[in-house]
């Protein structure tokens, strides 16, 4: 196989990987998770020896990192399978063992996602699209990374417990300290998406990312949200702590999310309230309205309806309860599409 044939093969492998990622959100096969799934990963989505996860050439669907979108698909697929087991328990010992295996898979997947580094993207040439500079694709890759972590933390509270050793042991989904961990991460994801113009050629990758961000926007007016490290700055770009060679060092960023949660706010970093969540929700709705005019409208309409249903379910919960999962809402309402 010559170089040109290999390039074409890699192009279609990445396209297939993107399709599988989209399908993983609305359908899943339990046999397609874990080691079995990893053994089928395409050879084009690999981390280089120096740790870079950026592709040699950008792809119109997967951007500058097919590995980032691939790991996101694995995270969503694992979360769906695990959530199905939680909501439809069989009561058998094998089910408990399977659940424990899923938690281990989630922990391993979290580490792989945190290790993603897109530093080599700085050396990529012109994308050939004036509406889609390289910086947009780097932001999309970071957004997939954040979205994957967000889904894992929402679904597997044990992962949050390991990151918050000073908190009590978290055994159930409703124990996750959303205001200290999940909401700040969701606000950071919103901030990243905010920096990508709606007319960017990467906009077809964004609906699913808006769903993931919206899934982390749970309002609790009685609790202040720790936004000290969320980077949220609606309609204004922000630079989070934890930078390396101009790119976000995700491991350092995640490790410091809860820093200062119990400290007094300063003028520079003022903790937010439910207003931050409302602003982020409004921003997502506004962006979806714009995307309806430039993309096929039906999936965008379903996206907006799904988020509206998820937020309504969140807001209807008793104070302090976080038992509703957005996958459950999607299953109950049937609001699903190929969000991309």
What does this structure look like?
The chain has helices at 3-26, 34-38, 66-87, 93-114, 134-155, 157-163, 182-194, 206-215, 250-255, 274-294, 297-316, 326-333; strands at 243-244, 247-248. It is mostly helical and 340 residues long. It has one domain. A hairpin with a 2-residue loop joins strand 1 and strand 2. The longest helix is centred in the first third of the chain and has 24 residues, at 3-26. Mean pLDDT is 77; it is low at 47-51, 227-243 and 264-272. This is C6 zinc finger domain containing protein.
Largest sheet: 2 strands, antiparallel
The low-confidence parts are 47-51, 227-243, 264-272
- Shape designation: globular
Strand order of the largest sheet: 1-2
* Spatial extent as radius of gyration: 19 Å
Assembly state: single chain
Strand content: under 5%
What is the straight-line distance between the termini?
Answer: 32 Å
| Overall helicity | 40-55%
């Amino acid at each position: 196989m010559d170089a040109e044939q290999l390039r074409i093969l890699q192009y279609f492998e990445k396209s297939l990987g993107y399709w599988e990622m989209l399908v993983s959100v609305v359908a899943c096969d339990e046999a397609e998770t874990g080691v079995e799934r990893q053994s089928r990963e395409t050879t084009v989505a690999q981390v280089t020896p120096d740790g870079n996860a950026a592709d040699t050439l950008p792809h119109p669907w997967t951007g500058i990192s097919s590995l980032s979108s691939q790991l996101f698909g694995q995270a969503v697929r694992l979360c769906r399978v695990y959530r199905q087991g939680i909501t439809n328990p069989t009561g058998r010992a094998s089910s408990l063992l399977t659940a424990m295996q899923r938690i281990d898979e989630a922990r391993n997947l979290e580490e792989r996602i945190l290790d993603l580094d897109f530093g080599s993207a700085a050396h990529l040439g012109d994308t050939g699209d004036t509406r889609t500079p390289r910086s947009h694709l780097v932001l999309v890759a970071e957004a997939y990374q954040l979205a994957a972590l967000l889904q894992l933390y929402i679904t597997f509270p044990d992962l949050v417990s390991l990151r918050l050793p000073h908190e009590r042991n978290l055994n159930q989904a409703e124990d996750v300290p959303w205001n200290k961990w999940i909401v700040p991460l969701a606000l950071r994801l919103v901030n990243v998406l905010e920096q990508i113009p709606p007319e960017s050629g990467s906009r077809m990758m964004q609906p699913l990312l808006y769903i993931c961000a919206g899934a982390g926007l749970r309002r609790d007016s009685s609790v202040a949200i720790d936004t000290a490290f969320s980077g949220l700055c609606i309609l204004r770009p922000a630079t989070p702590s934890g930078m390396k060679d101009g790119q976000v060092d995700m491991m350092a960023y995640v490790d410091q999310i809860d820093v200062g949660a119990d400290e007094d706010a300063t003028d520079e970093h003022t903790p937010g309230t439910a207003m931050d969540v409302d602003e982020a929700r409004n921003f997502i709705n506004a962006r979806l309205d714009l995307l309806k005019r430039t993309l096929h409208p039906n999936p965008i309409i379903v996206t907006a309806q799904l988020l509206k249903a998820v937020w309504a379910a969140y807001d209807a919960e008793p104070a302090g309860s976080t038992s509703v999962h957005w996958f459950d809402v999607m299953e109950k309402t049937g609001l699903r599409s190929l969000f991309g």
